[in-house]
TrEMBL record, chain A:
Protein name: ABC transporter permease
Coiled-coil boundaries: none
Database matches in InterPro entries: ABC_transp_permease
GO cellular component: plasma membrane
CDD domains: TM_PBP1_transp_TpRbsC_like
Keywords: Cell membrane, Membrane, Transmembrane, Transmembrane helix
Membrane topology: Multi-pass membrane protein
Lineage: Archaea, Methanobacteriati, Methanobacteriota, Stenosarchaea group, Halobacteria
MF annotations from Gene Ontology: transmembrane transporter activity
Subcellular localization, as worded in the UniProt entry: Cell membrane
Membrane spanning stretches: 20-38, 58-75, 82-104, 116-139, 146-168, 202-218, 252-274, 286-310
From TrEMBL, chain B:
Protein's membrane topology: Multi-pass membrane protein
Claim: Membrane is one of the keywords in the record: yes
Name by which UniProt lists this protein: ABC transporter permease
Main localization of the protein described in the UniProt heading: membrane
Localization, UniProt: Cell membrane
TrEMBL record, chain D:
Keyword Repeat: yes
CDD domains: ABC_Carb_Monos_I, ABC_Carb_Monos_II
Superkingdom classification of source: Archaea
Subcellular localization(s) per the UniProt record: Cell membrane
PROSITE patterns: ABC_TRANSPORTER_1, ABC_TRANSPORTER_2
Stretches assigned to the ABC transporter domain: 5-242, 259-503
Species the sequence originates in: Haloferax marisrubri
SMART domains linked: AAA
Coiled-coil segments on the chain, per record: none
Listed name of the protein: ABC transporter ATP-binding protein
Topology within the bilayer: Peripheral membrane protein
This protein's UniProt keywords: ATP-binding, Cell membrane, Membrane, Nucleotide-binding, Repeat, Translocase, Transport
Length: 367, 419, 355, 519
């Protein structure tokens, strides 16, 4: 094959990203244009919402659980294990974080660590334990990954409200009366609009660190290469002497770790776990899957997609408050989903790691 | 090959036969889930507080007694045929046509529809998570259609005979069309159906909500719901108590559909096409199957079954459409998985989950154990069903493995892959 | 430290609160020699206990009745609308114990009860927030718009003046306040309409930012919505959103602004936020529950009637926050007393729907 | 000369199969050693044991005179062994350099980060040392099979391999690439490396190897010196009887035109032009062969003819009617049989049993499905007939396709397609991976069809096969039909040149751009 072939391939890859970025940008420009032209129309309101610092900080906050779950999903799936149970990991960590804080006592500190942070780490730990269970089931016992993932979700979905009911008598936990709070960086937080980046939940900062860090780990470290190889062609990895199971376990545990941060941040940002219906996680884990597929398994892309969903949600909340605005709220709430559908219909499939979802066997049953 | 060898080969193939194995594994999964569930019950019985211990093990008192919980669950689902704390054991007042049992059968009936819906798409290799959305919109279509057409028809039995089948067809059609959307997106835009169906579930819920709250709501109600359909146009309980919301007609219809779906999948050319594209799309195309069309058709079919589930929910249970549709579509996924995507398997699987669900209320009442326990059990069952390897390993330690004969090196293997 | 607490007989049979946990069927497990005066079945609204407003208020009602009349009760927390008829029916058909009253909390149970009640003509029911026209159902309605008017008036008076108390303060130059609704239903619109009228009564120029979370239990959404309102310059946000409202308090605390509670006196049910809760629009669900139980115990069950409770009957009221109430200027309180009289006298017309 | 590898009485049992039975093998340092044998003879298994992928049931592996016990390939690599598998073990989306250093990445910054610059440089140095031509920055999925193979060899060398094992390395190469590979062998042995390669091709083994070991039914049936043996001796050792080595199609008068392809162009799955302006026709009683290195558009051409791909330009007519836009299903119904190149992906549904696989393509035909309902008992009879006539082993119609060996799967497909009573048979690589016995059988059947007056389109990368069976032979390169030659009067070298894109008459091809790195 000639070099032009390669160029063309790069082109398709580029065009995917270009379509996404270009699409988003042109929609924004269109709104800006209409908004500037008719400042008193709905477009003017829309532009004001999109350019407000309040919307930005809201979008950052809302994207935290989605982004962390998506990052987790990337590590797991890149390593060859499709983790559809992210939703369950978010639920279990959100619940454990709150209940641990409550048991320790929200005002207590243990060896200098405020209870809420103990809860935060306990949430992560619970998610890691759940993902370890998932990993053993999938890797050791060769379970169908999709089904096992669904099971993880269902178990968490039952267990968290169950435990809350046992402990509190209702599916919701009591309010802790305290949250992770905000960290404000002096001076920087005074910048208009972008100051939102410097006056945010601790979890937002973690997210802003985790995204590039994940990218780095995947693309620049040996471990990242092994993860990618394990998801593309595990045999290739095995034959050069790297233990595929170890890499896969690591990938899945990492997904538990990251999703755990997202779950803990979600519930502790509120100081409460809500266990009604789909719980307070309410589909964020599934949206995370969409986000990383959308971002083509690139942590930065996944963050972009999560931020897009969160941004649409933040805008939606504000759009509702524009007086005299007739479109029903429920319809506005469909905007993020419809957007995803339209973009999917236009750009089609993302490339799934070749061996994702398959078991890997060294081929010898004597060992 | 000698006769003895032949017989051995047949035996070996039988033991490896996937159907038998599936059933065994499903049972084993159920037992494991029940055992793990018992542990969870015991542990939570230490966390909660109570006056008297429900059971005492190893000198420790527990607030909840797992054995009692399971007995109450089962007993409740059947409408209490047994008197658990009475030496008489049997409840003389028990009537098989009771409320608790009706509840079980109601859930079972609904799950048969959604289980079939999911099974059809899974067999076609399509991971349709969207039965829920198809059910929501199919149900809404049925409710609106019945409401608007009912005044045009004579009320009573005749009207019901005309209206109910039509309403079910409308539900199926709308569900089918809504299911065809992700099918078409998959076939013609190569969009991953897992994502699109998840998105479409959200969208369906919101659209239905808006339609009802803004345009077709019941003006007399605070709740987002349609105006009730006249009783003669709904599926009324025949023998079972009023309010149990179970109609034997709907169950019969569901069972007929099971046979129909089985026939379609296993006995017809279309079913062959569908299964082939599910197993191996490339091979299907090679065999002259129009993969794109089959994708759309299968999704339509799956959606239609989901839509019928919605129609039955409206006609049998609610008598109207109401926001906050229960997660029957998601439960259908678990039913289909437990059934191994086999139409006949859907019936016992639906019955099991129906029993769990209806028994859960009895558990909450009778023992104080939160009914969410059943959600945990459901997840555990699916988890164990997902790992047949676990049971094979258990089995091989107690030596259930068939002893294999040694064949010549080019003799191939028997009995399918052992994955 | 859970588990059974055998031998500790000092805990009375009906005490359902103990160290950190609740035993939902305590009543059933211990039958005292004398026997209770009545059995009551409670079917709560979606959202469940722990919302610190609506359902918890109903629970307070039955607990009061318990200690007053020695009744016993069992409770059910449905997690979906389809469970309403199932729980109602379970209570109604139970013979062990035989329930003397089934309390259905919340308007969402109306249609289920309309089906259940005629099937059990011997069973007494009561419903809160809607009416069911059956002889064995006592219905209780509230004039939420009146109480909401009062807190709206309070918000309108305070937002334009310099006021700071507890952890919050107003910004007198911005002329807007907020309203967060749970689900967009006519009942909640009634709260909004009353609130808006009250605000306008204080100052026509103040705008009310209003938004709905789509759920009574999505406190994360509640927090986001309230935060956006505070960011937009609102300094007082009133919620009629059950558990979702917890997020509103959270936002108020983080932003150093005020919130107004609903259903219960939330400065007491949510002591963590008593430094930002100016007042609450209490809706005495507890008295509806209590009264109906009292009627049953006294053999005066008022089936087939509808009781409407407004400001006059003290069924709704604006109560000042336990911590902040004392700091609210006297002239504001006087204005509220005046408006209360005027409403009772019928001098102020309050709309029940938003236009 | 010292002994590099000595396998001592190796036995390997799988559940139900003895893959290696008491095999002894000795390989001298600095030599090239060929392993021959039919499908399933145990060649791959034996080498997997040497490479530490499998543990022998019995027996010992000696490397450089020392007994070794490998727990994993990592141990074998440490002992200086490298293996290039039949199916390449490369990660497609990664670059050449990334693949070569995989698992042994050079690191910087306290081991946290892959030193990509150093990795690149090491790869360049290594390939220069052995005269390989690879670009470290190309993605594997973008380079030709020949390059991929070189990457595999470099991968082994990068890990310090002294002993290289290659499993069927020539199966997918052009004659020129094969020559190139053997030149590399010489280069490597000159530097003291030892090479073991597996092959099905007798000529190659005699040409490139110093010693040849033949396995049959898991046993070593003899080791011979390459320059002291003959094709016939080797063939007999392999099969245990005499075999017809070269298929020969006796000339025969063709009848009416069955298929006509005119100016056909098509794109591949990525939308890149793969077939450009191809024209030819096939008549009754004629075998039209297409030779060419894999990936030069044969697959897309065949898919366009069989209805699996829409051509971008040109037309196809079949039995006098235009079928350019006809569906796959209608072509099947119209008597077009097709042996696909990929039996695992297309030819069989692996999780279906043979009864179900037997009607693949006929599921709508009135023979098996009247009124849309499938008659399963007819289908069973049909499958059993194929099993019987085409000697599919073991003869279990109820067993899943997956459980049969590659050769038996192929026989079943061939049987199914031939039993359609076709007017045109499109056969792509019909004997790929199939052992000599089965190969002979399939060739015979093809010639029988030809004698019956059917038209046959035969695509194969095996030159001797297409040359021996075809009446006319088209050679494809880079999507173009270079020429149509008379296979009986053209030498292998001439065809090889055409396959490499060189027309004998240079004046005509000047306009052709240089072929890039496809070779
Ligand atoms: N992992 C395995 N488990 C069970 N049996 C196996 C396994 N691998 C190979 N076999 C069996 O061992 C025998 C030898 O297989 P092997 O792959 O070594 O043959 P081969 O000589 O390489 O054949 P080919 O020419 O087709 O590559 C075959 O009968 C095969 O069925
Ligand atoms: N796990 C296994 N158990 C038993 N036999 C196996 C196993 N894996 C592979 N085989 C057998 O090994 C042989 C070679 O398998 P492979 O997957 O290499 O097929 P192939 O390369 O398509 O076949 P062929 O080498 O005949 O072209 C086949 O006979 C197959 O049945
Ligand atoms: Mg081999
Ligand atoms: Mg092979």
């Amino acid at each position: 094959m000639s070099t032009t072939t390669i160029d063309r391939l790069r082109d398709t890859e580029l065009s995917y990203r270009a379509t996404l970025a270009g699409g988003a940008l042109s929609v924004f420009l269109l709104i800006a244009l209409l908004g500037l032209a008719f400042p008193s129309s709905i477009w003017g309101n829309f532009l004001a919402i999109l350019t407000s610092r309040s919307t930005l900080s809201s979008a950052l906050r809302l994207s935290v659980p989605i982004t962390f779950a998506a990052l987790g999903g990337i590590f797991s799936e890149k390593a060859g294990v499709v983790n559809i149970g992210l939703e369950g990991l978010l639920i279990i960590s959100a619940f454990t974080a709150v209940i641990t804080t409550a048991v320790v006592g929200p005002e207590m500190t243990v060896v200098g660590l405020p209870a809420i942070w103990i809860g935060f780490f306990a949430g992560i730990l619970s998610s890691v334990l759940f993902s370890a269970l998932f990993a053993v089931v999938c890797i050791r016992f060769k379970a169908d990954q999709i089904i096992a993932g669904l099971a993880v979700w269902l178990i968490a979905l039952g267990l968290a409200p169950f435990a809350a009911t046992v402990y509190y008598g209702g599916v919701n936990t009591d309010n802790l009366g305290t949250t992770l709070g905000t960290w404000t960086i002096p001076v920087l937080s005074d910048i208009p609009f972008f100051g939102a980046f410097f006056d945010a939940d601790p979890a937002v900062y973690m997210m802003l660190v985790a995204v590039p860090a994940s990218w780095y780990v995947l693309n620049r470290t040996a471990f990242g290469r092994h993860v990618r190889a394990s998801g593309e062609n595990p045999k290739a990895l095995d034959t050069v002497g790297v233990d595929v199971s170890r890499v896969r376990y690591a990938g899945v545990l990492l997904s538990g770790f990251l999703a755990g941060i997202g779950g803990s941040a979600l519930s502790l940002g509120l100081g409460q776990f809500v266990g009604n219906n789909q719980t307070m996680v309410n589909g964020k884990g599934f949206i995370a899957i969409v986000a990383y597929l959308f971002g083509n398994y690139n942590p930065i892309g996944a963050f972009g997609a999560s931020f897009l969903f969160a941004g649409l949600e933040a805008a939606q909340i504000r759009l509702q408050q524009v007086p005299g605005y007739a479109i029903p709220d429920s319809l506005i709430q469909t905007i993020p989903y419809v957007t995803v559908l339209v973009i999917l219909a236009l750009v089609g499939r993302t490339r799934i790691p070749e061996a994702a979802g398959e078991h890997y066997d060294t081929g010898d049953d004597n060992r | 090959m000698s006769a003895a060898e032949n017989a051995k080969a047949v035996l070996r193939r039988l033991t490896a036969a996937s159907a038998t194995e599936r059933i065994l594994i499903s049972f084993a999964a159920l037992i494991m889930a029940v055992l793990v569930g018992a542990v969870i019950i015991l542990v939570s019985g230490r966390i909660t507080t109570c006056q008297t211990a429900a059971t005492t093990l190893f000198g420790t008192g527990f607030c909840y007694d797992p054995v009692e919980v399971y007995l109450v669950l089962f007993n409740g689902a059947l409408g209490e045929p047994f008197l658990l704390n009475d030496p008489a054991l049997f409840n003389p007042d028990w009537n098989p046509l009771n409320f608790g049992f009706a509840l079980t059968l109601k859930e079972t009936t609904l799950l048969i529809f959604t289980g079939l819906s999911v099974a059809v798409s899974f067999r076609a290799g399509l991971f349709n998570i969207g039965t829920q959305g198809q059910l929501v919109l199919g149900g809404l279509a049925t409710a609106l259609f019945s409401f608007f057409v009912a005044p045009l028809l004579p009320s009573g039995l005749v009207g019901g005979l005309i209206l109910i089948p039509l309403a079910v067809v409308i539900g199926a059609l709308v569900g089918g069309l809504y299911g065809a959307i992700p099918g078409a997106l998959k076939a013609y835009a190569d969009a991953n159906e897992v994502i699109t169906t998840i998105m479409l579930n959200f969208i369906a819920a919101q659209i239905a909500f808006v339609l009802v709250s803004e345009f077709f709501g019941n003006p007399d109600s605070q709740v987002v719901e349609t105006t009730p359909i006249p009783d003669w146009a709904t599926l009324l309980p025949v023998a079972f108590p009023q309010g149990g919301d179970f109609s034997i007609l709907a169950l019969a219809f569901g069972l007929a559909l099971v046979v129909a779906v089985w026939f379609l999948l296993e006995q017809t050319s279309f079913g062959y096409d569908l299964r082939t594209s599910g197993e191996q799309p490339e091979a299907a195309e090679y065999g002259g199957v129009d993969a794109k069309r089959t994708t759309v058709t299968s999704m339509f079919l799956s959606g239609a079954l989901g839509g019928m589930g919605g129609a039955i929910w409206v006609l049998m249970v609610m008598g109207k459409w109401q926001a906050g549709v229960p997660a029957l579509g998601f439960d259908g996924i678990t039913v289909s998985i437990l059934a191994g995507n086999n139409p006949f398997g859907v019936v016992p699987a639906a019955l099991l989950f129906g029993t769990l669900k209806s028994g859960s209320l009895a558990v909450q009442f009778g023992t104080g154990v939160p009914k969410q326990l059943v959600g945990v059990l459901r997840g555990l069952i699916i988890l164990f069903v997902a790992m047949p390897e676990f049971f094979r390993m258990l089995g091989s330690t107690i030596d259930l493995e068939p002893d294999r004969e040694t064949v010549a090196t080019d003799g191939g293997r028997l009995g399918g892959d052992d994955e | 430290t859970g588990g059974p607490s055998e031998g500790s007989q000092e805990t009375t049979a009906t005490t359902t609160e103990s160290s950190g946990g609740e035993e939902t069927t305590a009543a059933e497990q211990t039958t005292e020699e004398s026997g209770p005066s009545a059995y009551v079945g409670m079917v709560y609204a979606l959202g469940g206990l722990g919302d610190k407003s609506f359902n918890d208020a109903a629970k307070r009602g039955i607990e009061e009745a318990t200690s007053e009349f020695g009744v016993e009760y069992d409770e059910a927390q449905p997690s979906a609308a389809e469970e309403f008829p199932q729980f109602q029916r379970r209570f109604a058909q139970s013979s062990n114990p035989d329930y003397d009253l089934v309390s259905c909390i919340g308007y969402a149970q109306k249609s289920a009860l309309a089906e259940t009640a005629p099937n059990f003509p011997e069973q007494n029911f009561m419903i809160v927030d809607d009416t069911v026209d059956e002889d064995n159902v006592a219905s209780y309605l509230f004039r939420e718009e009146q109480g909401s008017f009062q807190v709206g008036y309070l918000a309108g008076l305070l937002t334009t003046q310099e006021f700071s108390a507890g952890s919050g303060s107003t910004t007198p130059d911005s002329k807007n306040v907020g309203f967060v609704g749970g689900v967009d239903a006519p009942l909640i619109r009634k709260f909004q309409a009353g609130f808006e009228a009250g605000v306008a009564h204080a100052d026509e120029e103040i705008t009310v930012d209003a938004a709905y979370a789509g759920s009574f239990s999505d406190s994360a959404k509640g927090k986001e919505i309230a935060t956006s309102m505070y960011d937009n310059g609102a300094d007082i946000v009133y919620h009629a959103a059950g558990g979702t409202g917890l997020g509103v308090f959270q936002a108020a605390k983080e932003q150093g602004k005020f919130a107004i509670g609903v259903d219960s006196d939330q400065s007491q049910t949510e002591p963590n936020y008593s430094d930002v809760i100016l007042a609450s629009m209490v809706k005495r669900v507890e008295s509806a529950v209590y009264t109906s139980v009292e009627n049953v115990v006294n053999d005066e069950f008022n089936g087939g009637t509808t009781t409407t409770l407004g400001l006059e009957e003290d069924g709704v009221a604006a109560v000042y926050g336990a911590e902040l109430g004392s700091e609210i200027p006297q002239d504001v309180k006087d204005s509220l007393s005046e408006s209360r009289e005027a409403i009772i006298a019928g001098d102020i017309e309050i709309p029940t729907t938003t236009e | 000369m010292s002994t590099a590898v000595h396998l001592d009485e190796i036995t390997k049992r799988f559940p139900g199969v003895v893959a290696n039975d008491d095999v002894d093998l000795t390989v001298e340092r600095g030599t090239v050693h060929a392993l021959l044998g039919e499908n399933g003879a145990g060649k791959t298994t034996l080498m997997n044991i040497l490479y530490g992928l499998y543990e022998p049931t019995e027996g010992t592996v000696h490397v450089d005179g020392e007994p070794r016990d490998f727990d994993s390939p990592a141990d074998a690599i440490d002992a200086g062994i490298g293996m290039i598998h039949q199916h390449f073990m490369l990660v497609d989306p990664m670059t050449v350099a990334e693949n070569i250093v995989l698992g042994n990445e050079p690191r910087k910054w306290f081991g946290t980060t892959v030193d990509r610059e150093r990795a690149r440089q090491e790869v360049i140095d290594l390939s220069n040392r052995y005269g390989f031509d690879v670009n470290p920055d190309d993605a594997i999925e973008d380079v030709s099979v020949g390059v991929q193979q070189r990457v595999e060899i470099l991968k082994a060398l990068y890990r310090g391999a002294d002993i290289l094992i290659l499993d069927e390395p020539t199966a997918v190469l052009t004659p020129q690439e094969v020559e190139e590979l053997f030149r590399v062998f010489e280069e490597l042995t000159a530097q003291g490396k030892t090479i073991i390669f597996i092959s099905h091709k007798l000529g190659e083994a005699m040409h490139a190897a110093d010693d040849i070991t033949v396995l049959r039914n898991g046993k070593n049936v003899g080791t011979v010196k390459a320059d002291e043996t003959s094709n016939e001796e080797l063939a007999e050792l392999m099969v245990g009887r005499e075999v017809l080595l070269e298929p020969k199609a006796e000339p025969q008068e063709p009848g009416d035109e069955v298929l006509s392809v005119q100016h056909l162009s098509a794109k591949d799955n990525r939308g890149i032009p793969a077939v450009s302006d191809v024209s030819f026709d096939i008549r009754e009683g004629e075998v039209f062969g297409i030779a060419g290195v894999d990936g030069n558009g044969q697959s897309q051409l065949v898919e366009a003819i069989t209805g699996l791909r829409t051509p971008t330009e040109g037309s196809i007519s079949y039995k006098g009617g235009d079928i350019t836009d006809a569906s796959r299903r209608s072509r099947i119904a119209d008597g077009m049989a097709y042996i696909p190149e990929d039996r695992h992906e297309r030819g069989l549904v692996m999780d279906f049993d043979l009864v179900q696989n037997g009607i693949l393509g006929s599921q709508h035909s009135p023979t098996f499905a009247a009124d849309g309902r499938i008659n399963w008992s007819d289908a069973r009879d049909h499958a059993e007939r194929i099993i019987d006539e085409y000697d599919v082993r073991p003869p279990h119609a109820d067993a899943d396709a997956e459980s049969f060996s590659g050769g038996n799967q192929q026989k079943f497909i061939v049987g199914r397609e031939f039993e359609r009573e076709p007017d045109l048979v499109v056969a792509t690589h019909p004997t790929r991976g199939v052992d000599i016995g089965a190969m002979e059988f399939i060739h015979e059947r093809l010639l029988t069809l030809r004698a019956e007056g059917k038209a046959v389109l035969l695509v194969s990368s095996k030159l001797d096969e297409v040359q021996g069976l075809s009446d006319r032979l088209g050679v494809m390169h880079d999507g173009e039909l270079m020429d149509i030659v008379d296979p009986r009067n053209t030498t292998e070298e001439e065809i090889g040149l055409l396959m490499a894109g060189e027309r004998p008459n240079a004046a005509e091809t000047d306009a052709e751009p240089p072929v890039g790195d496809a070779q």
